[in-house]
Amino acid sequence: IITSYQIDEILVAIDHEDYDKLLETLDLCKTLNVTVRLTSEMFDIVARKVSTEKYADIPVLDVSPHYNNSVTIGMKRVADILASIIGLVLLSPLFIVLTIIIKVTSPGPVFFNQTRIGRDGKPFKFYKFRSMTVCKGEDEERMKKMIEFMKNGDAEAEGTKVINTNRLTWIGKFIRKSSLDELPQLFNVIKGDMSLVGPRPCLPYEYEHYDPWQKRRVSVIPGCTGVWQVWGRSSVSFKDSIVLDLYYINNMSPWFDLQLILQTIPTMFFSRGGK
Q1: For helices 92-105 and 70-90, angle between their N-to-C axes, nearest 10 degrees
Q2: How far apart are CA 153 and CA 165, in angstroms?
Q3: Residue 22 has pLDDT above 60, yes or no
Q4: CA end-to-end distance (rounded Å), the chain
Q5: Sign (positive or negative) of CA dihedral 65, 66, 68, 71
Q6: Which residues contact 14 (CB under 8 A, 6 or more apart)?
Q7: What's the mean pLDDT in 23-41?
Q8: Which of 2, 50, 181, 207 would disulfide-bridge 7, Cβ 3.0–4.6 Å?
C-alpha cells in the first residue's frame, strides 16, 4: 500500500490494546522508511510532558526512529567519558565532605555497591553513597513491596520508588532527596557500565518480574539520569516510567541528552520529587 499510493506518513491510533501488541506494531511501521506518528492512551504520560502536534485536536507523537545508530552511540560514549572525568575533578571537594559525614555519622562503609542489570540484561556493580543503615543480604521487605508495586501499581500508585524509610540515616535523607547519593555512578560511566543519560538500571529480581515489553528498556546502556527522573521522578507510576524510558530510547540523540542533563541540575538543586 505504501509503495502503490506513495504514502509518506503512518498514523497509529490504538487504545485498549496491550503494550506488547502496540510496540510490535510500531516496530513494524518503523521498518517502512516513512514518518510514524502515534496517538494512544498508553502513551498519555509522554503526550503530557512533550510538546506535540495535534490532528483534529488529538495530540500525536512522532515515534519515527531518531539518530539511534553507531555514530550517535560513539559520540555519546566519548561525551560520557569527558564529562565524567571533568565532573569528578570539579566535585572532588563535595566527595570528600560527604565521605567524612557518612563515615562519622553511622557505622558501615561510605560507598554502597549493588548488582544491577545493564544493557542486554548483563549484570554489573553499581555504586552509590550509602544512605541507609547496613542490612545483611537483600531488604526482603522492600523486595516484596517492589514486586507487588510492579504487578499492581498503576495510575493510582504514588510513585516509582519503594524504599524502607526506617533504614534511612539523617544524611541519607538529604542526599537521596537531592540525588547526591548518585554521584559515585560517574565511576560506572567511566567503566562503561552506565551512561550519563539513559534508563535507570534495575535490580536482578525486578528484571525477572518485567513483562516482555518492559525488557525493551535494557536495549541501551543505563543512565545516571533520564526522562522520568527529570519529567516525573517519584511522581509517576511504574508503567509510565517504562514508557518514558522507551520514548527516550526511540529519540536518543546528543542534543536530547544535553537537554536532560541541563534539566537534571535544577531538579537536583530543588530536590524535586526525590525520596
Answers
A1: 70
A2: 19
A3: yes
A4: 51
A5: positive
A6: 21, 22, 25, 40, 42
A7: 88
A8: 2
Q: Which grid coordinates belong to 21?
A: 501488541
What percent of the chain has a predicted confidence (pLDDT) above 70?
88
Q: Which three cell numbers stand for residue 195?
A: 551512561
Task: Give residue-wise pLDDT tens across range 56-94.
Answer: 888 888 888 766 677 888 889 999 999 999 999 999 999
Q: Beta strand 35-39 with 9-13: parallel, antiparallel or unpaired?
A: parallel
Nearest alpha-carbon partner for 77 in 219, 231, 220, 268: 220
Helix (H) or strand (E) holding 60: strand 58-62
- For residues 251 and 254, give the distance between their C-alpha atoms in angstroms, rounded to a whole number: 10
Characterize the bridge pairing of strands 195-197 and 223-225. parallel
Tell me the three cell numbers of residue 7.
504514502
Which residues have C-beta within 8 Å of that of residue 147, sequence separation ≥ 6? 205, 206, 209
Backbone angles phi, psi at 72, to 5 degrees: -60, -45
DSSP string, 73-115: HHHHHHHHHHHHHHHHHHTHHHHHHHHHHHHHHSSS-SEEEEE
What average pLDDT does the chain have?
85
C-alpha cell at 219: 536495549
The whole-angstrom separation of Cα 174 and Cα 155 is 27
Query: How crowded is the C-beta side of 145, counted as CA atoms within 13 Å?
Result: 14
